[in-house]
Write a structure and sequence with these properties.
It is a single chain. With 252 residues, this protein is α/β, with parallel strands linked by helices. It has a single domain, classed as Spore Coat Polysaccharide Biosynthesis Protein SpsA, Chain A (Alpha-Beta Complex). Helices cover 20% and strands 25% of the residues. It is built from five helices and 13 strands. The strands form three sheets. Strands 1, 2, 3, 4, 5, 6, 8, 11 and 12 form a nine-stranded mixed β-sheet that branches. It has a two-stranded antiparallel ribbon with strand order 7-13. Strands 9-10 form a two-stranded antiparallel sheet. The radius of gyration is 18 Å and the shape is globular.
């Protein structure tokens, strides 16, 4: 069974090498759609293509990220159409699978009673040693997340903009598909590494950054809900630990 990992990118120079180094341990191909990066992302992908099975496409992003003009579902469906594997994994560029995933993958893809999988989602907040938890009015942080399905099932993204909802063939609910759950974590490093926030981020109000100016304020408390965190006491994927060790050695 072959696995295709699909991912859109736009100015992700921090995450691209980490993502590829992790994903090549279990993916048969990594398919990337670049939306017009200008920070060296494309050059880094091209360098990695010399060693790994990476297919790079240029699909210009239209509209402002996280607005109704964004063409995110178009880009993600384009990636689905390029996938050649028996299974597809829609793992975002700032997400890494636990190192155990390569070992459990054969068992997952060989099950005949499951066509789609969920995984626990670990969301880091401010740094790699703090995770964000659900709170009343803001229950979106520590849930299971759909990240892999059997190809040729008609699973695609609904024709939306920045919401990007998966649906089954003929517009049926994704919940109508036989599903399974793995206990292998997906780690989300969007708010822990690199710039820690993207331009026009739809959750920037949580870190008190208005008009895309200034740095995140991890002590900020929104009026509508509490930001609940707790220390992370688990292990990071090996590629993240190597990155953190190099960063600490350089004093940055």
């Amino acid at each position: 069974m072959r696995l295709s990992v699909i991912v859109p990118v736009l100015n992700e120079i921090t995450f691209v090498p980490l993502y590829v180094e992790s994903a090549i341990r279990y993916a048969d191909e990594i398919i990337i759609a670049d939306g017009g990066s200008t920070d060296g992302t494309i050059e880094e992908i091209e360098r990695l293509q010399q060693r790994y099975a990476i297919r790079l496409f240029h699909v210009q992003q239209s509209g402002m990220p996280y607005t109704e003009d964004w063409n995110e579902s178009v880009v993600r469906n384009f990636l689905i159409d390029q996938a050649q594997g028996d299974w597809i994994m829609n793992l975002d560029i700032d997400e890494l699978m636990d190192d155990r995933f390569a070992d459990v993958l054969p068992e997952l893809v060989n099950r005949q009673d499951v066509d789609i999988y969920q995984f626990p989602f670990v969301n880091f907040w401010g740094d790699p040693w703090t995770i964000r938890m659900n709170s009343p009015g803001d229950e979106r942080w520590s849930n299971d997340i759909t990240r892999m399905w059997r190809a040729k099932q008609g699973i695609r993204y609904r024709d939306e903009k920045h919401h990007c909802t998966l649906e089954a063939a003929e517009g049926r609910s994704i919940w109508s598909i036989p599903r399974g759950r793995s206990d292998v974590n997906v780690y989300h490093y969007h708010y822990a590494l690199g710039n820690k926030i993207k331009f026009n981020d739809n959750r920037r109000a949580d870190v008190n950054v208005g008009m895309n100016l200034g740095q995140p304020d991890w002590t900020f408390k929104p009026e509508a809900y509490d930001i609940v965190t707790k220390p992370y006491e688990g292990e990071h994927p090996e590629v993240i630990m190597n990155y953190l060790n190099r960063r600490d050695a350089l004093g940055s």
